[in-house]
Amino acid sequence: MATAPPPSDQHHQSALRRRRRLNLRYIDRNRPLQILAILLLYLLAIHYIFKFASFNLPSASDNNGLKDDGELSLGIRGGRRLSSSVLLHVNSFGGVGVMAFSYSKLSVHPYHHKRCAKIISSPLKSSKDDKTPEEREAAPETTITQHKRQRIPILSYKDNYVIVSKPAGMTMHRNSNSWFRSKQPVLETTIKKQLSRKPYLVHRLDHRTSGALLLAFNSEMAGNLHGRLRSDESTKLYVALVRGDLREKFKRAAAGKDDGSIDLSTNGGGNVIGSKGQMPSVVNDDADSRNTVATDLDASEYKSKITVNLPIKIDGIEKEAQTDFHFLSSMAVNDEAEDTEGPYVTKSVSLLLCQPKTGRTHQIRRHAIRALQSPIIGDSEHGDSRVNRFWREKIGFNRLGLHCFYLHLPSSSDNDEDIKCIAPLTDDFKGPLESDELATLWEEAAMRLPPLLLEPYDDRGGTFGRNYRRDKSENTSL
User: Fold this and answer.
1) What is the average per-residue pLDDT within 33-43?
2) Alpha carbon distance 345, 375 (integer Å)
3) Are 241 and 381 spatial neighbours (Cβ–Cβ below 8 Å)?
4) Fewer CB under 10 Å: which end of the chain, C or N?
């Protein structure tokens, strides 16, 4: 079979010409992209030049324009400073002002000098080298304070869980409401950095509520503690500062019928029941038991409780909620202001010990205003802004008057131990109560519940990090 003859030189030359035309077409087609890439690189270079360098331009008060010697100080990021004969020229090219470095004599066009004088209104700041020794000694030294991360007080540290004292105004974790408040610390992240261990939330406290918070270090322990906290034998007590004098209402609760209960609900529906009842015992195994046992007083208001059983609507669904209120103290504030008329501006306050039987959102806050008509002081959502402003300006109480004071988790098996912990009142809560205006209220409450006098503490020795292991002398049941 005959083979094809080799291509002639004419065919070879035509093939080369076609190939060159295709290459030219490819170059012409991509030329705009190449120009755009070069332009972007040029703009990026200009951006970084002006980002990392700052120029000291003349001010409007300088009649001679720039310095006569033509020197210009160039500030470099990082605190370094170059002061040499680096000169700046301003020329006009196509209607655009162009800056260029040169080592010749400084010359500025009058048109551009006027524009610089209009734009720059602040006087030219002299460098440190231009000051005399007397001016340097007279100038105060500025110190830069390094931001210190907020520390969460540790109440009890174990190998599998930790109890901390949550401060008021700290969110539990990142969510859709607090995501854009990136500068505000969250408790979950702060504890993780502080203890070098990942925490698992067992229960939650509101953003403005302070007090004892239980966290686990593994998912299994978190489920165990959560189940024990939801049991009927567990105890969770809150201290609440509410508006109004509730002494007479608790006296009525103690004077019940034959069965020992009385209906205190305003609508007669039987959802607010007053009865005789002792305050739950508040004992901390780690503290002095003599200072942590509640004192029984003879007055009837101290031997009664008010049980509120009102459903709370969550996401459009009403759920059962129950809270027991115990009386600690109350007092009336004598104020000479003229706005004392009306029930919403009364200056009487009471301290209550609240025991929620269920864990609904804002349960204590909602039950206090709906059942007792006494919103918690500082509650901007369910309270009155005029009363909150009065206490904020009078004694500096600028927070929600609710604090998780006591936690008790019973053991679920022979391998578990009872968990009892008292979270002393924080300084922003206890400080205003100890003021002269509320001295009577605080002394009566401290007599009724002596653990209120416990000072805040931080068990710093327990924060050993992820490598912490119990000693042989410690209890290893958990």
Assistant:
1) 88
2) 12
3) no
4) N
Residue ending a domain, choose from 124, 156, 182:
124
Q: Is residue 197 part of a domain?
A: no
pTM of the prediction?
Answer: 0.66
Over the stretch 343-401, which tens digit does the pLDDT of each residue have? 445 678 999 999 999 989 899 999 999 999 999 999 988 877 888 888 888 888 999 99
d(CA 408, CA 392): 33
Contact 208, 241 (CB under 8 A): no
Q: Per mean pLDDT, which of 56-65, 81-90, 225-234, 456-465 is the most reliable?
A: 225-234
Q: What is the 3-state secondary structure (H, E, C) of the chain?
A: CCCCCCCCHHHHHHHHHHHHHHHHHHHHHHHHHHHHHHHHHHHHHHHHHHHHEEECCCCCCCCCCCCCCCCEEEEECCCCEEEEECEEEEEEECCEEEEEEECCCCCECHHHHHHHHHHCCCCCCCCHHHCCHHHHHHCCCCCCCCCCCCCCCEEEECCCEEEEEECCCCECCCCCCCCCCCCCCEHHHHHHHHHCCCCEECCCCCCCCEEEEEEECCHHHHHHHHHHHCCCCCEEEEEEEEECCCHHHHHHHHCCCCCCEEECCCCCCCCEEEEECCCCCCCCCCCCHHHCCCCCCCCHHHHEEEEEECCEEECCEEECCEEEEEEEEEECCCCCCCCCCCHHHCCCEEEEEEEECCCCCCHHHHHHHHHCCCCECCCCCCCCHHHHHHHHHHCCCCCCCEEEEEEEECCCCCCCCCEEEECCCCHHHHHHHCCHHHHHHHHHHHHHCHHHHCCCCCCHHHCCCCCCCCCCCCCCCC
- The CATH number that applies at residue 384 is 3.30.2350
Structure tokens at 261: 């209960």
Reading the block at residue 477, the tokens are 């049941």
The answer to whether the CB of 358 falls within 8 A of the CB of 234 is no
Answer whether 172's CB lies under 8 Å from 205's CB.
yes
Do 118 and 256 share a domain, yes or no? no
* Residue 42 domain boundaries: 25-124
408 lies in the same domain as 284? yes
Q: Is a pLDDT exceeding 50 seen at residue 258? A: yes
CA dihedral 408, 413, 416, 420 (to 10 degrees): 10
Is pLDDT above 90 for 463? no
Task: Determine the Cα–Cα distance for residues 174 and 207; give it in Å rounded to an integer.
Answer: 12
Same-domain check for residues 115 and 247: no
